[in-house]
């Protein structure tokens, strides 16, 4: 990838070493132009994915408060056909959800074949917020890295393409964004004292993210770190990852669509043939 940082499976992630301010040497206008071109490609790919019905796409977005998960969903999914898309947001689990294993609520809402599913937060919260706040004993959350890898293996083995993006902002950028929300009375509904409270645990969150990204980046479901201090760059990097991940599947989809077209045409021909035969019968 040109714009996102790929977490090579088996390598240790150090978030300090990855610049959240990255711009790839582009101006904002250049970035927006490239983004528009990726977005157009993505639009075409979604149509093929949907019609072929061979694979599902699951995009997982994680990041600290204000990292831009909502904005990325709005912008990157902008061109897609809403019929083929579904966004799932994971909040504090309900009593019923907590009474099941942590993947229960997640597995229920993974996308079916042909669909694009976007997770705004995900099962990774169960090794992030849950770890930082000690919501379960350590041996319980520690076991989850392997459990997550096995779950994602099951999904990818059965036709789901998984793309995982961590939106990487700096602590300073988060402060700016939180303060900006306070300045804008029309956006005050976005304010949350909880965001400031979580911010006090920034370093613990970064340690939790580093371990999750390190242990759960696999060949079949890699993590991408998205420099996200610049919103236009964030969108560009995510759209590139999506396009480049989907590209190798296009031949499969085209073959499936060709086979479908042939079958439909043959069916129609047979139908017409039958009709003419009926009409000419005395
Ligand atoms: P938001 O994304 O701002 O709507 O907030 C959702 C909140 O739900 C965040 O504070 C998350 O940390 C929290 N959350 C999501 N999943 C879990 C989980 N499994 N356990 C505890 N809290 C969670
Ligand atoms: Mg929030």
List the helices and strands and how they pair.
Blueprint: E1 5-6, H1 28-52, E2 56-63, H2 69-76, E3 85-89, H3 95-98, H4 104-107, E4 116-120, H5 129-132, H6 138-157, E5 160-168, H7 171-183, H8 193-199, H9 202-215, E6 223-227, H10 231-246, H11 250-280
Parallel strand pairs: 2-4, 2-5, 3-4, 5-6
Antiparallel strand pairs: 1-6
Helix pairs in contact: 1-10, 1-11, 2-10
Bound molecules: adenosine monophosphate and magnesium ion.
Distinct bound molecules: adenosine monophosphate, magnesium ion
What sort of overall outline do the alpha carbons produce when their principal axes are compared?
A: globular
Category by helix and strand content: alpha/beta
- Number of E-state strands: 6
Radius of gyration equals: 22 Å
Distance between the termini: 68 Å
Low-confidence stretches: none
Q: For this entry, what is the oligomeric state of its chains?
A: single chain
Percentage of residues assigned to helices? 40-55%
Tally of alpha and pi helices: 11
Strand content: 5-15%
Q: Order of strands side by side in the largest beta sheet?
A: 1-6-5-2-4-3
Secondary-structure element pattern, one letter each: EHEHEHHEHHEHHHEHH
Instruction: Note the main sheet.
Output: 6 strands, mixed
Q: What number is the mean pLDDT?
A: 96
């Amino acid at each position: 990838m040109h714009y996102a940082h790929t977490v090579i499976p088996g390598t240790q992630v150090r978030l300090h070493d990855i610049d959240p301010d990255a711009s790839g040497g582009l101006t904002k206008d250049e970035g927006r132009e490239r983004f528009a071109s990726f977005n157009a490609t993505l639009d075409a790919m979604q149509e093929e994915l949907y019609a072929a019905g061979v694979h599902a796409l699951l995009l997982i977005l994680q990041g600290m408060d204000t990292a831009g998960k909502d904005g990325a969903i709005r912008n990157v999914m902008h061109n897609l056909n809403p019929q083929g898309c579904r966004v799932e947001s994971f909040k504090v689990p309900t009593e019923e959800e907590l009474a099941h294993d942590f993947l229960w609520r997640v597995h229920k809402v993974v996308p079916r074949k042909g669909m694009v599913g976007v997770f705004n937060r995900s099962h990774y919260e169960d090794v992030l917020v849950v770890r930082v706040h000690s919501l379960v004993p350590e041996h319980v959350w520690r076991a989850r890295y392997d459990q997550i890898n096995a779950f994602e293996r099951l999904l990818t083995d059965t036709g789901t393409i998984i793309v995982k993006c961590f939106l990487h902002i700096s602590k300073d950028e988060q402060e700016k964004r939180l303060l900006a929300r306070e300045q804008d009375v029309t956006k005050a509904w976005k304010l949350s004292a909880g965001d400031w409270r979580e911010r006090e645990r920034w370093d613990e969150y970064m340690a939790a993210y580093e371990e999750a990204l390190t242990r759960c980046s696999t060949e079949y479901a890699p993590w991408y770190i998205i420099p996200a201090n610049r919103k236009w760059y964030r969108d560009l990097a995510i759209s590139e990852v999506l396009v480049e991940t989907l590209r190798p599947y296009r031949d499969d989809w085209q073959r499936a669509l060709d086979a479908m077209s042939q079958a439909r045409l043959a069916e129609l021909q047979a139908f017409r043939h039958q009709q003419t035969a009926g009409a000419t019968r005395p």
